[in-house]
């Protein structure tokens, strides 16, 4: 049993942390699982960064998480990240934007973020670079790849990755940390795993073509439900929200709309007015459809 990979989706129960002690406990548990997953495949646990994701979490509770040791926080939406970065500015947190960027928000990201994980268009790269140059700042970025072939997911199709990466050096304020992906939402672990394997394979292939092409060559992949699988497949950064902060009420379709054309700036996702009501499923429905 010692060398067996995770092949079953555990049953998740993510209790809401409401004190520093509860945050410390949740973080310690996640770190323990990170360590175990890394050791299962002979990796050094220190090579896996934990990025806690605080989206939808009110600032009072984010403060508790920071008191429990979080120094970097991930947020999906620029507006929310900007607000939190301003209101929590006294605490010295580094903010990572991990969701799709509309180019009209590039200026905000350039102003407050230290990292952007969802780069998937040259337009966004150019907009960010222009703002960063003007501000005399630089930004760590990951290029997002769509590894699940779901048309509604953001990210570059794998076949466009190489030509995209070849354009990156012209944006000198963007420091390329590696590749990022979201796996398919499924309880079928082998299928989830294929997404992570694909990202690693793409990284390796790009490195073979040109060692400079993928920057640091990092792999940001894995969330609360699948980060152990991601680590087994080579993740160097896992983005974990619910396992640290507690279950989210907002349906995931709010973050991964199923009908948005990812190339179209005009079709910004309309935010659902309220958390899932009785008519709406609380599961990450659109993306989970098999
Ligand atoms: C919300 C989010 C996560 C974390 O998801 P959890 O289920 O809360 O762990 C990871 N990556 C992205 C891009 C996200 O928006």
Automatic annotation (TrEMBL):
Q: Which UniProt keywords apply?
A: Pyridoxal phosphate
Keyword Aminoacyl-tRNA synthetase listed: no
Indicate the segments forming the Alanine racemase N-terminal domain, all copies: 47-248
Chain positions covered by the region annotation Disordered? 256-290
Q: Can you tell which superkingdom this protein's organism belongs to?
A: Bacteria
What CDD domains would the database entry show? PLPDE_III_YBL036c_like
Q: Which family does it belong to?
A: Belongs to the pyridoxal phosphate-binding protein YggS/PROSC family.
Q: What is this protein called?
A: Pyridoxal phosphate homeostasis protein
Which organism does this sequence originate in? Leucobacter albus
């Amino acid at each position: 049993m010692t060398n067996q990979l995770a092949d079953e989706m555990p049953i998740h129960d993510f209790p809401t942390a409401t004190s520093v002690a509860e945050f410390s406990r949740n973080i310690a548990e996640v770190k323990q699982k990170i360590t175990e997953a890394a050791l299962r495949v002979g990796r050094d646990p220190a090579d896996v960064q934990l990025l806690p994701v605080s989206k939808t979490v009110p600032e009072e509770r984010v403060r508790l998480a920071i008191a429990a040791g979080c120094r970097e926080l991930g947020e999906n939406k620029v507006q929310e990240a900007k607000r939190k970065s301003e209101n929590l500015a006294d605490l010295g947190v580094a903010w990572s934007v991990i969701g799709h960027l509309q180019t009209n928000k590039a200026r905000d990201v350039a102003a407050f973020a230290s990292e952007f994980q969802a780069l998937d268009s040259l337009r966004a790269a150019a907009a960010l670079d222009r703002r960063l140059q003007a501000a005399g700042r630089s930004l760590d970025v990951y290029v997002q790849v769509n590894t699940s072939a779901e048309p509604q997911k953001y990210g570059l199709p794998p076949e466009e990755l190489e030509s995209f990466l070849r354009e990156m050096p012209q944006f000198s304020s963007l420091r390329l940390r590696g590749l990022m992906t979201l796996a398919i939402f499924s309880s079928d672990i082998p299928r989830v795993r294929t997404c992570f394997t694909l990202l690693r394979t793409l990284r390796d292939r790009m490195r073979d073509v040109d060692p400079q092409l993928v920057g640091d060559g990092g792999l940001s992949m894995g969330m609360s439900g699948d980060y152990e699988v991601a680590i087994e497949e080579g993740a160097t950064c896992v983005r974990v929200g619910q396992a640290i902060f507690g279950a989210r009420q907002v349906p995931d379709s709010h973050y991964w709309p199923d009908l948005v054309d990812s190339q179209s700036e005009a079709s910004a996702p309309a935010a659902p007015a309220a958390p899932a009501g009785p008519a709406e499923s609380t599961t990450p429905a659109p993306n989970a459809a098999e």
